[in-house]
Amino acid sequence: MTSTFDKNIIESYNKKALERNTSNVQDWKVKERDNFLSYIRQYNCNSLLEIGAGPGKDSLYFKEQGLRTFSTDISPDMIKLCKEKGLDAEVMSFYNLVFPNHHFDSIWALNCLLHTPKEDIKDVLQEIKRVLKPSGLFYLGVYGGENWEGVWEEDHYSPKRFFSFYEDESLKELLVEFFHIEYFEVVPKEIVGGKFNFQSVILRNK
Predict the structure, then answer these.
(1) Cα separations (Å) of 130 from 5, 103, 166?
(2) Neighbours of 14 (CB within 10 A)
(3) Which of 37, 59, 114, 166 gets the most CB atoms within 10 Å of its CB?
(4) What is the pLDDT along the chain (206 residues), one digit of tens a residue?
(5) What is the 3-state secondary structure (H, E, C) of the chain?
């Protein structure tokens, strides 16, 4: 991650922290959480790391379901909101997760890894794999359906954010290098709203 890329993402999300904290969670995202929770219970997971936690709404949900959660985000303003909810949280980049190997039973990453340049994504996935226990669960949710990366000129955030998108098969080919795919579903853009479909993936550590 370059310093400019890092700085732009932080600034963009700091500016939107309060707005994202007060917005309602969309119904289709609630279903994503519930579905992952069913896998968490099936595999008897007790701990969960959220990366790209934003204001901590999902971490709070999983904490209320009885999990020991830890929330990370690159935005200090987002982490402040997490802590205000009583969550264990720290400013942290998913490029460098400051935890021991095999530390978490499960990991939740909703719409954050899509800010990773494709030249860096394997290093990030390896870092996630490192802190996840053997056979641990990893939820990855991203927008996609086509292969593209760059600064999104239609973005309403400022500075405009960098995104990486993958076709379904390209994403699967990338992920199976690191994890077993337990579940892969596409939520169509008509439900999501916007230009892109949503790729919902539940992975298990090899």
Answers:
(1) 24, 8, 23
(2) 15
(3) 59
(4) 446 768 899 999 999 999 999 999 999 999 999 999 999 999 999 999 999 999 999 999 999 999 999 999 999 999 999 999 999 999 999 999 999 999 999 999 999 999 999 999 999 999 999 999 999 999 999 999 999 999 999 999 999 999 999 999 999 999 999 999 999 999 999 999 989 999 999 999 99
(5) CCHHHHHHHHHHHHHHHHHHHHCCCCHHHHHHHHHHHHHHHHCCCCEEEEECCCCCHHHHHHHHCCCEEEEEECCHHHHHHHHHCCCCEEECCCCCCCCCCCCEEEEEEECCHHHCCCCCHHHHHHHHHHHEEEEEEEEEEEEECCCEEEECCCCCCCCCCEEEECCHHHHHHHHCCCEEEEEEEEECHHHHCCCCEEEEEEEEEC
Which amino acid is it at 26? Q
